[in-house]
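Supplementary notes for students who missed Thursday's class. We covered one full example, reproduced here. Read the sequence, then the structure, then the short commentary at the end.
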Amino acid sequence: MFSPLLLLFSITVGIAASSSSSLSSYQSLQQQYYELLASYEDDDINSPPGPTNGWPHTQPYTTNYNDLVSYNKLLEQRMYITYQEEYFAIYSGDSKNDDHMLHISQIGRPEGSTTGYYTGVTHFPHVNNKNLITFLFSAGRHDGGTNTYFTIDTTEKKNPFSGIQELYIDEKDVSTWTWVSSYTVVIDNDEEKVSHYALFSGGSGGGRVGPSKLYLFQEDSGGQLILPPTVEWIEDTSSVYGAARFCLLTDLGNIYNANKKGDDIELVSNKGMPDIIISGTGGLYIYSKLQQSNTWNLVRSISIHDDLNDDTSAFVGLEYMQDERHLVIAARTKWSNRGREFHAPTLIYDYQNDEIVQELSSNGQTVSVALVDNKSRLLVSAGGQSGYTGQPNLMFDVSYIDGIQLEEVVTDNNTTDQPWRGRFLKQIEQYQRRNRADNVIVTWNEEETESSLLTSFQANEESEKTNIEGLQSSYFKATLELSDTQLVRDMPLDYTTFDYIDPVPVSSEDYFVIPSPGKTRTRQVLPFQLANNNNGTSSVDLILEINSAQTCNIYYRTMANETASKIMPLPGSEGRNNQDEYYYTRAGDVLVIGDTLYIILAQYNGNNTVYSFSTNVF
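Structure (token representation):
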């Protein structure tokens, strides 16, 4: 396949090696190369795959147990020798107990695998056998791949990931998968009716759009998966615009539609069943299925093209606020907008009323969002691309306000200067105030008193009191404000315009360091808790931060609403980018078994990797 990107690169290198009289030509071609690179990295349906001959493969395709175990032993030895002093200082204090050391192992790719373009990872515990846990990996992006899975048994005395090998979900289903999410349903506490749903979002490559797909894994009475899984749903890409970039599978509760007169109410989604949520270059799409129905129907959508009039090019990460009303939608602009001011805010979406109620982080290349500290705060992460400057990951405080009361004070002032709001115009409050530079736009009346603000728990309690046959006569809207306490000290609160930067990561073998606050290129943030530790921090969220061309890090916190007291980098997770090696970390997952913490990293063009160490180091 002809690759203009590679041709331009080769010309650029050739001119660079010639005389100085060619400098201006070299600079011109270099600029063209950068523009073409930006076009390649943008989230559009014409994004081409990688090099003609594929990316250089950097790690062995271990396809049998003995070879994989031997290779992991070599990794352990290399890790120990290279980072010995750093490990003792960071992870073990004065102790040199091997149990407290950071261990590393890799997961074997499926038999016959020739690629490993992994893009996402998640897991689900089995219901009928608590010792079994299944992991799911999405793979593909622009270059195409096949989704995989494996099941571990946690009764193994040693690392249950040792010698494990992935299996194909459907070997022949090669597509541009971008993310994976799972959800488990147990019907009537019947061990024979355990259903694990696995949603894989599609993507784009070579001018083609791959559909998202939902699989159904079922358990037998002994907890074993009934294989192969069945296909529950396939996205109709002809009815949506653009390609998927992210997905979320969760129960949004009962969702109702009202007719134009408001007299009749129609139930379109049942509480107790998962909802399919797809985000991407076209916008947001929510699909639901009633319990008595066999079909999934589109019940909510936001079109970037029709409903917005700003610089947003794609919706990416999603977070459900667990209040049966709000979704957080991460948004970003085209990478070709480097060096420019842009407006691509992350949105708070009230899917019950089908309205956008707040926007924030309008100048961030937001990729991932996550609730932390028992739903009281939201972490919004930005950056996410190896060849561009990083941005801050910011914390926001979450509170709720009476939606009915608020609507009574909303006026029609200042509506003509915001045509992009389109069909959301009537619902969005026009009283706005800005909080700390351009990071936040809080869409609430300034005159509201503190007594009218509720925590998420108070809002849920009040909603239950006003609930009549599943319909709320009153409801509460979420409001977010930039938190006084950020994830780390000295976190910048302003976004700067992003620009090109060397995509080659600094190897942790040469320089064992974490990224500076506000300069991370973050692809994902994932809160987790150490449920089994005994030092009083079991209810406090720690944060796994997945970065591109930078080390992935664990932020250790001893109390909620406090900055991290320790940042623990995972050496080697920064990836490689040179003539012979190319791989980056794309996503992460966390599992705590007993007193051992396992960090599972999905590697784009590398082997999926597991880091582990004792939680006693905390």
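Commentary. The first strand starts at residue 103 and ends at 106. The chain has a mean pLDDT of 80. If anything here is unclear, bring it to office hours.
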